[in-house]
Amino acid sequence: MSKRTLSKAQWNSVIAINFEDFQKNADDMRGSRWSKQNFHKNLKCYLENTTLHGLKYLAEDKITVTERVFFGLSFVLVVTLSSFFISNIYGKWSASPIIVTLSAKQTTDTDIPFPAITICNLNQARKSKVQSIGKSSANFSMVLSLCNQGSNDLDVTYVGTWKNFKAILTKVAQPCNEMLLYCSFGSRIENCSRIFHSMMSISEDNLLRSYEDDEYTAIDWTPDKGYGKNLPVKFSPRTSGGIGKNMGLTVILNASSDEYYCSKTNSAGFKFLVHNPANLPKISNYGVLLAAGREAFIPIYPIYEDAGPKIHSHKQAVRRCLFSEEGNLTYYRSYSRENCRYECEARLLQQICSCVLYYLPRSDPSIRICGPNDNACTSRLLMKIESSNDSLACDDCLPGCFELSYGTGLSTSPMIAGTFGNSNGGYPEGIFNSTTGIRDVSIVHFFYTANTFRSTTKSEIIGLTEFLSNTGGILSLFMGFKTH
């Protein structure tokens, strides 16, 4: 048997013929697969086996055209209804995904700090000190600014920087050691200078941090972080000493009414404000008035709002709150709506009135402090800022996602000389030794009424899982979607 050898040209011819046969077979198979007949066959097979409502009847051979149209229109209707309800769920998911509910567990008073309490004498300046200041001097003009009074000598010119204003404020204001006669906390007598600190301006650096002394270690507490682990034995801000008047904070105050030179009210006494230790107070607007010569009981009710971790993924405009790391305030280490508003007010005053009120933060110590000649501008601007219908309102200051505030009550009764007996009510001797002393002295008790309370939580009302579950339920109900 002889072997036949093919030339190279012959091999190329054979390969070309085989490729043409393969391409023809492939085209025939493709044409067969996607022919109109096969398409109808596959569509009918799908309609006969699908779980979608009504579609299987379109493949029935025995039904009329009218019936086919009915089932076809019915399918279009359920698709429309499904799309409508799914769009409602999506709209709710995207527009209002956050819900505020009561927390599943109670919060104890040891989980949060005892509130910061700011107390101010209604007297803005001591008479004996003001009388020693020349009325034509720059210092007297600054006193008038402190008293919110106009100057009779509008030609007085001075550089009203914080350095100058602080010096005159220190000179004329009542010292804390004269106003605070007695302090006790948690049934323990305290040195008032340890638990109260003089606050002349909320822009001073030491007011933006927790206080620390030889006995108490400062803790970096914020509403978001709370207290950490491995706390020292004595730390600040302190937690509650217990419930009831005896375990709260008791303060005896001296109004020194004979030294009144100017007051922002028509009475002698004090203003106090109970607030979050991480916030700085605006006691002039929100302080509670307490007349001298009275004993006051002030129950405190903590109000705590926290947030679930899932809401962090939502946009700020949707959740309408800020986490502390998102605030990025210029002067404060902890974000809160109140602290944000202070910075907003200071910024607007500097832009419009070219000065900053003495109690507001300032970026530069050389910035001018608003004087009596600025009263018209500052009063008008503050009214616009506090108005909810004005474009100057600080609406960009959103609430914090974690917030701690305190509600308070107030009940007072006039004090009567000679009713304390030999025991002097358990207070130091000499405080209630005369009618004049009773007239100027006030006793204030701040205390919790319960050692647990129910907080609120911001959480997702509809998350991605709930959205997909609701969408699947609607598709299953209206159209018959199901998995095997």
Describe the protein's architecture and organization.
The protein has 2 domains: 35-97 and 462-479, no CATH class; 104-460, Acid-sensing ion channels like fold. The chain has 16 helices and 18 strands. Residues 152-157 and 203-212 have low confidence and may be disordered. The protein has 484 residues and is α+β, with helices and mostly antiparallel strands. Helix 4 packs antiparallel against helix 16 (464-479) and helix 6 packs across helix 7. A hairpin with a 2-residue loop joins strand 5 and strand 6 (188-190). It is found in: Membrane. Its main location: membrane. InterPro entries: ENaC (IPR001873), ENaC_CS (IPR020903). GO terms for molecular function: ligand-gated sodium channel activity.
How many domains?
Answer: 2
Structural class: alpha+beta
Q: Total number of β-strand segments?
A: 18
Our Rg estimate from Cα atoms comes to: 38 Å
Mean pLDDT: 78
Distance between the termini: 64 Å
Estimated share of beta-strand residues: 15-25%
Uncertain runs with pLDDT below 50, 5 residues or more? 152-157, 203-212
CATH superfamily of the largest domain: Acid-sensing ion channels like domains
**Secondary structure tally, helices:** 16
The CATH architecture of the largest domain comes to Sandwich
* CATH topology call of the largest domain: Acid-sensing ion channels like fold
Q: Mind summarizing the main beta sheet? A: 9 strands, mixed
Name the descriptors:
sodium; Acid-sensing ion channels like fold; ion channel; ENaC; membrane; 3-stranded antiparallel beta sheet; alpha+beta; ENaC_CS; 484 residues; 9-stranded mixed beta sheet; elongated
